[in-house]
Amino acid sequence: MTTAATFEIEYRQYLDPDGHPIGKQLPAIARDLDHLVELYQLMSFTRVFDTKSIALQRTGKLGTYASCLGHEAAHAAIGSAMRPEDVLAPAYREYAAQFYRGVKPRDVLMYWGGDERGNDFSGPRHDFAWSVPIATQCLHAAGSALAFRIRGEQRVAVSVCGDGGSSKADFYAALNCGGAFELPLVLVVVNNQWAISVPRSKQTGAKTLAQKGIAGGLHCLQVDGNDLIACREAMDQALDRARSGGGASVIEMVTYRLHDHTTADDARRYRDDAEVKAAWQREPIGRLRAYLTRLGAWSDAREDTWKAQCEERVNEEVDAYLSTRAQPVEAMFDHLYGDTPLEIAQQRALAVAREVKHG
Fold first, then answer.
1. Rounded distance between C-alpha atoms, residue 286 and residue 92, angstroms
2. Are 249 and 256 in contact (CB under 8 A)?
3. Intra-chain end-to-end CA distance of the chain, in Å
4. What is the DSSP-derived secondary structure letter of residue 301?
5. Displacement of CA 287 from its chain's centroid (Å)
6. From CA 54, how far away is CA 66, in angstroms rounded?
7. Predicted pLDDT at 170
8. Rounded-to-integer distance, Cα 333 and Cα 56, Å
9. How far apart are CA 96 and CA 102, in angstroms?
10. Nearest partner of 235 among 21, 66, 27, judged by Cα
11. Are 145 and 123 contacting, i.e. CB atoms less than 8 angstroms apart?
12. Does the pLDDT value for residue 19 go beyond 90?
């Protein structure tokens, strides 16, 4: 008997949960303390924004909202590693990645507040809108990557999905295209252990989610998703490989969803408090803060000042969102079709007439 193929999946981690380096060899990004402070500030700002957004939803000022609590390191690494000309096809909670690329917090609030103008990013105009359908954005990224290759452009398409998304057909189709055509594509699976109420253990028999890319011929890697340094190094290498013609990658970032799936969910009904409490001991922001503080690049005084600045900026964004005048009712009909079908035109006329009559 002969063996047709064997494989291994590397697991990469540089900081332990207390922010202590693991091993002696740290990547160059670990010594760029100014940039790490910038990314720490992005992560902590995103957490302040996230907390405020949940409060807005609870008080009826925002629609259903998807929290990013616990995902900050993964998302900050993705956004900061990309070049402006690259394309991001996000799911629906990658706020830190989008903030780094220029999306305004008020855009996020408008989207979850039911105003589609929130998807009309003032920052990277070529990035895709949020994708609530699971994993369809992976195909959007694969298509973009194919276009980049045909045009001979040095650009990379990056898509992000969750552990549940990695079980969808669209994910497999995207990675198959990425391998078959050697596309400049990076598929990131942010494995937060839960696909709404379905645990990771019930979603797949695969030992890792990264290994799903092996079948498609992609480069595959699993990293500690709460370790910013590991996540950022993995993204840098995958983007460099894609940009230089080395093909597509799958990166599994192992983290934990510390909040409910969305504000329409109640995770207390299906997971143990002890599991959540243990996950808080591994969360990413405290880990990076401890590392930076130990090296003298951050302090309690800077933390207090920064938190106050975050609160002030978030409040400004909330005020901008709340003061934005709602679109007229016909706006919901005006951006879906090039040529509006008759029945939709009739519905539009009825809606306008109703608004005129009742306000």
1. 24
2. no
3. 77
4. H
5. 20
6. 9
7. 98
8. 27
9. 10
10. 27
11. no
12. yes
Instruction: Specify whether the CB–CB gap between 298 and 289 falls below 8 A.
Output: yes
Give how far Cα 300 sits from Cα of 51, 69, 205, 290, 294, Å: 21, 22, 45, 11, 12
Structure tokens at 313: 């900026």
Greatest Cα-to-Cα distance within the chain, rounded to the nearest angstrom? 79
Complete edge-to-edge strand list for the sheet that includes strand 157-162: 11-12, 219-224, 249-254, 185-191, 157-162, 87-89
Q: Scanning the structure block, which residue is given the tokens 């002030």?
A: 312
Determine if the pTM surpasses 0.70.
yes
Amino acid at 348: R
pLDDT, one tens digit per residue, over 279-314 is 999 999 999 999 999 999 999 999 999 999 999 999
CA dist 134 to 82, 159, 168, 264, 287, Å?
Answer: 23, 12, 7, 17, 30
For residue 313, give the nearest of 150, 112, 99 by alpha carbon. 99
**Pair 105, 49: CB distance under 8 Å:** yes
Structure tokens at 91: 């799911």
Tokens of residue 112, six digits: 């979850």
- Residues across the chain: 359
Distances (CA, A) of 233 to 125, 222, 230, 240, 297: 26, 12, 5, 11, 20
Q: In whole angstroms, what is the distance from residue 113 CA to residue 57 CA?
A: 9
Question: Among 159, 192, 190, which Cα is nearest to 252's?
Answer: 190
Amino acid 33 reads L
Sequence-separated (6 or more) residues with CB below 8 Å from residue 135 = 161, 165, 166, 168, 169, 170, 171, 174
Is residue 95 within 8 A of residue 75, CB to CB? The reply is yes
Query: How many whole angstroms separate alpha carbon 183 and alpha carbon 155?
Result: 10
* Helix 284-294, helix 228-243: angle, nearest 10: 100
Point out which residues pair with 195 in neighbouring strands. Answer: 198
